[in-house]
Amino acid sequence: xxxxxxxxxxxxxxxxxxxxxxxxxxxxxxxxxxxxxxxxxxxxxxxxxxxxxxxxxxxxxxxxxxxxxxxxxxxxxxxxxxxxxxxxxxxxxxxxxxxxxxxxxxxxxxxxxxxxxxxxxxxxxxxxxxxxxxxxxxxxxxxxxxxxxxxxxxxxxxxxxxxxxxxxxxxxxxxxxxxxxxxxxxxxxxxxxxxxxxxxxxxxxxxxxxxxxxxxxxxxxxxxxxxxxxxxxxxxxxxxxxxxxxxxxxxxxxxxxxxxxxxxxxxxxxxxxxxxxxxxxxxxxxxxxxxxxxxxxxxxxxxxxxxxxxxxxxxxxxxxxxxxxxxxxxxxxx
Length: 334
Description:
Largest sheet: 8 strands, antiparallel
CATH class of the largest domain: Mainly Beta
Structural class: alpha+beta
Mean pLDDT: 90
Strand content: 25-35%
Strand order of the largest sheet: 10-9-15-6-7-14-11-12
Order of helices and strands: EEEHHHHEEEEEEEEEEEEEEHEEHE
CATH topology of the largest domain: Elongation Factor Tu (Ef-tu), domain 3
């Protein structure tokens, strides 16, 4: 990181040895590549050599050049990181700021540079729901369909979007698929490819690709969608329990039902977000992974669902109970 907190200027790339400045306050849309400033150059060089030393310990090609004293190019460093990432020997770490979207472009580039394609990893493993035996599926179009719903999103114009990754086979519109996780069939009405805010209609999504299904009724995050005749259950995603809770209520009573509907849609999209109703206090409690997470939820309520909410601390319902046995004496007077 180049600076910190309110002085966070940008990011220094220890592989290319370039600085990326996000000084323009436009939520990280534009950034500028420049030379590393003199006050950060010595520290950046030291960490650059540490990266090379760590790679030399794990990768033979880098070790040979390191021992020979030959300069190692940024492309060779990238190739080594990719090889080691695919082998699960290293985990690339990037920095940025989610609040101002700083570093998002570098993160997307790193995903392309370092993470494996479907052909770089072993076949996906699943379980046959009929006999609970293990099954392997190759990332090929000729294999039976196996796909996983990994995200749900509500679009104000077209409704519910279910994001899927197709591990094998071809997902085609106008066909029925089997939800092996919950044991029912779903019809694929419409398929789209997502490019930021643009949605491109397609008739099929082949193996190894991502896309979205419009109009699924019951399928949720973590469900397996597969061929009706060749069922398989893929490993579902596990989500951590929420760590913080706040109370929320609409600004007016008229928006009570509207807020409840909006919160239900948001909890369907985000499995780490929970909504509960405290019967004793009558409060609606929302829970998430941190303060920023819940701030974004409240902001989305206003921005996407036009519901304004008041937030506060959850009330504690105090109760009386008998602590210990005791004796007492009373008089009855007529």
